[in-house]
Amino acid sequence: MRVFLVRIEEQPLTVTEPAPLDLSGVVRPPPRVEAGRSLAMVRAFTRRPVWRPPVPAAVPPPLRASVRTTLATVQGYVMLGASPFGAAPFGARRDRLSLAIGDVMLRYGTINYVDRDHREFEDGLRTPSFSRTILTGGTVGGWATASLGDLELDNLEGERSDLLRRVAVDGRPVEVLQPRPDGTTEVVFECTARDIVPGDDDTVRIRLRDWDYLLDKPAQTATYPDDAPPEIANRRRPFGYGPCNNVTPTRIATTAPAYQFNDGPSRALRAVYVAGIPQLPADLAAIDLAASTFTLAAEPAGDVTCDFDGLVVDGVYLNTTALVIDDLAFRRGGLPATRKSVRHFERFAADMPGEVQLYVSHGEEPTVLSLIQRLLAPCGWGAFSWRGQLQVGVWKVATGAPRCLLSKAEGTLISLQPAELPTEVYPPPWRLRGGYDRNWTPQTASQLKGDDTPGAADPVGGPERRRWLARGQEIAEAKDEVTRDRLHLGAQDPAVVETCLADKIGCETVLQASLAHWLGNRAQYRVVPDTPPFFFDIGDEVAIQWDGHGLEGGQIGVVAEVAEGEWTELVIEV
Question: What is the DSSP string of 265-295?
Fold first, then answer.
């Protein structure tokens, strides 16, 4: 028999014992409804029915044109609801048809249920499953990934096949409700329907989509007119937030050297360059900060670039992550103000106070969501809540204000298992690097004028300025060499993360906080609480108490993943 012995050299980690928690004052979650019921309500619109003429006993003679027009009206006005044929003799029939055409409410439940307001939920809904997570790409953070699945309705005898032809639900709101003991219902989750399709195993499926689609639209809708120079006609106008450096402005005229660098009022135009050489006030014929344009006094002999401080909206200079995301989502994206989680945005503004820079040229067509994702790097996260509110935050240790206590002793925590940390953060990184101070137009020596020989007067600004102009972005770093050399010999050194941060100090501060977070002996647990469905959202702070895993005295963690189905399942990081 072979005998194998294994020896692994270990380096004890410095573990700070968590301070004892006083859990007596922590709020307990509400009890779960004993009878597991799920209700779903879908707003829909019935489609125009296909008109089928009755089969006559004998073939009638050809209809006259006036009669055919009336028949066409029967098919067409139902969709419109009102028509120029309102005085037609078929008015009574139109009224009768209109009772079935228009907004309808489809109500289904996992059981047959009638609430206190006498609204009936038809049995036939199979238990749905939904999830949201920021544990993607081997790390924690970024924009949440949602998996909403479908609402599956039993169709064993084809009784719901008519929904496929008569009901249009695409883009309509969907509500998932829970019954209350007093007979009322509570909306616990909102989303929208994508479409209705046949399912497997004799079902009809209403496919769902998260609120992300509200932000999956062009970030810029304003375009140049058709009579603009051919290079920019019908293209989107450029726009920028914060201090944007060495941007190539858009030339907006062929007869004069006129340029636009931003769509909307800008705070300042700090400098204009031609072939890297700063222009004097006399070199500029006009500057209009309200329209974000300038005109050179003469045709330029080289590439034109500029530095400017970006958008000012309602008198506010938008130069922080929270302000820019707010403007992108609610002004450009068109989200109603009711979809903003004010509490999350206020906390996010306090956690990310540094200045940011973001510029989109006329040749780019990003979506609102893609720009928000860019702004969240390197340690921010964003998601819609179950009730459809936009939430943003910084991934960090709990602040110490838990929403509730989940305890095995009190019966609110059914199971708890340690979960594996994401691959990008365990083994932990010993160094994090991030880009800042973006140069939007990198330029080589051949694109710059002036004498760059040592000792000569260089109108571009000297060797350091030339080096900056050749690079796309500066790099800041935060590191802990003790972790690399003594503690985690397999500590990671990830690639540079591109950020929208404008200055070195702000970038280093964010990187150092993120590095300290992952060097703090983080742990994640997959737990099943005995709570009502859709009670938790990503970013919620929760106190957990369990026999073992060092959780006997309780610890406060942050929710990184929520899954809803027969039970709620959470991933909590402490």
Answer: -EEEEEEEEETTEEPPGGGEEEEETTTTEEE
